[in-house]
Amino acid sequence: MDMRLGILGTGMVGKTLAARLAGLENEVMVGTRDPAETLSRNEPDTYGNPPFSVWQEEHPEVRLGTLAEAAGHGEMVVNATAGAVSLGALELAGEENLSGKVLMDVSNPLDFSKGMPPTLSVSNTDSLGEQIQRRFPQARVVKTLHTMNAYLMVDPAQLASADHTVFVCSDDAEAKAIVTDLLRSFGWADIIDLGDITTARGTEMMLPVWLRLFGALQKPLFNFKIVR
Ligand SMILES: NC(=O)c1ccc[n+]([C@@H]2O[C@H](COP(=O)([O-])OP(=O)(O)OC[C@H]3O[C@@H](n4cnc5c(N)ncnc54)[C@H](OP(=O)(O)O)[C@@H]3O)[C@@H](O)[C@H]2O)c1
């Protein structure tokens, strides 16, 4: 690959995808609300990972910009912001910077306001993937990779049996093909095309199951495997 990517989000997912995509010879810019503020953080994040500046020093090839700069930079844009604020983050990224582009959405609509485990802020008859597609009709939204831990997203071979499953949901067949190529470059083999963006209702509703599995297994490196 040799693509310009804009990754919106400085959390574990944004950093993990950015490092992997840069390692595959792509030109990557990560987007954050306020780059100077993000670089000035010196406390570990909520998961105990080192602050962004430490990660940035280890990955000098990845540039940091505002959400709008990162979205403008990308030929493809990734939404890796907290699901509860994704629509707002994408507003800051700017509709003009998303129009006509593949927007890979890896967010989950998790509501942590009433404690753990979180609930879904949208479900059954709608999804965050659809909300994003409706609000940004010119973006080519592909929902994928959000049903597993960040480290597995970019390296499925970490599990002993690597033939576990990733889903793609989108109204745009060509965008799905582009994202499928990117998934293959990460090592994914079992990629199930579920259909249009409304199928993201199903994949987002896998999260309550994922969260209980995490509780039961006490480790994040596991995934769904669709045997047929
Ligand atoms: N962690 C995982 O393994 C995993 C797995 C699958 C899916 N996901 C999904 O992937 C997404 C990212 O997860 P994460 O764990 O990497 O990080 P996260 O803590 O869920 O999100 C961090 C990002 O959200 C942005 N943000 C927070 N509040 C905001 C606001 N009010 N307005 C705009 N942006 C705001 C932050 O911006 P700043 O950079 O400006 O601080 C930061 O870039 C989430 O939707 C999550 O559900 C996570």
Describe the model.
The chain has helices at residues 12-23, 35-40, 52-58, 67-73, 86-93, 95-98, 128-135, 150-153, 173-186, 200-204, 207-217, and strands at residues 4-8, 27-32, 63-66, 76-79, 102-105, 110-111, 119-120, 140-144, 165-169, 190-195. 38% of the residues lie in helices and 19% in strands. Bound molecules: NADP nicotinamide-adenine-dinucleotide phosphate. The site of NADP nicotinamide-adenine-dinucleotide phosphate has 23 residues, from helix 1 and helix 5.
Rg, Å, rounded: 16 Å
Number of strands: 10
Largest sheet descriptor: 8 strands, mixed
Alpha carbon gap, first and last residue: 31 Å
- Based on Cα principal axes, name the global outline: globular
Q: What's the average pLDDT? A: 97
N-to-C series of helices and strands: EHEHHEHEHHEEEHEHEHEHH
pLDDT under 50 segments (min length 5)? none
Helix content: 25-40%
Question: What class, by secondary structure content?
Answer: alpha/beta
Bound molecules: NADP nicotinamide-adenine-dinucleotide phosphate
Strand residue content: 15-25%
Strand line-up of the largest beta sheet: 3-2-1-4-5-8-9-10
Number of helices: 11
Helix and strand topology:
Blueprint: E1 4-8, H1 12-23, E2 27-32, H2 35-40, H3 52-58, E3 63-66, H4 67-73, E4 76-79, H5 86-93, H6 95-98, E5 102-105, E6 110-111, E7 119-120, H7 128-135, E8 140-144, H8 150-153, E9 165-169, H9 173-186, E10 190-195, H10 200-204, H11 207-217
Parallel strand pairs: 1-2, 1-4, 2-3, 4-5, 5-8, 9-10
Antiparallel strand pairs: 6-7, 8-9
Helix pairs in contact: 4-5
Bound molecules: NADP nicotinamide-adenine-dinucleotide phosphate.
The site of NADP nicotinamide-adenine-dinucleotide phosphate has 23 residues, from helix 1 and helix 5.
